[in-house]
C-alpha cells in the first residue's frame, strides 16, 4: 500500500513537534505559543502542503444544517 504522507511531510511534522516541545512553536496570526499536540501536527502538515509535499487534502467540515437534520431523525 502506498504511503499516505510523504517523507518530507513527516519531517515537517517532526520539526513542528520538536519546536512545540522546546516551547518555540508559534501559531499563525496571533503568534501564541502552541501547547497542543494536535495543533503542532496540523501546523507541520500545513507547512508540508505549502512546500508541495504529498499530503491528503483537508476533510470538509459538515455544516450546521446537516447536523440539525440528522439530529431530528
Question: How would you sum up this structure, described in words?
Answer:
The chain is mainly α and 73 residues long. It has one domain. 53% of the residues lie in helices and 0% in strands. It contains 3 helices and no strands. The chain has helices at 7-22, 37-50, 64-72. Helix 1 crosses helix 2. The longest helix has 16 residues, at 7-22. The chain is extended, with a radius of gyration of 16 Å. The model has no long low-confidence stretch (mean pLDDT 87).
What's the topology here?
Layout: H1 7-22, H2 37-50, H3 64-72
Helix pairs in contact: 1-2
| Main pleated sheet | none
Class by alpha and beta content:
mainly alpha
User: How many whole angstroms does the radius of gyration measure?
Assistant: 16 Å
Q: Which range does the strand content fall in?
A: under 5%
How many individual helices? Answer: 3
Mean pLDDT: 87
Instruction: Report the end-to-end length measured between terminal Cα atoms.
Output: 38 Å
Number of domains: 1
User: How many β-strands, per DSSP?
Assistant: 0
List low-pLDDT spans: none
Secondary-structure element pattern, one letter each:
HHH
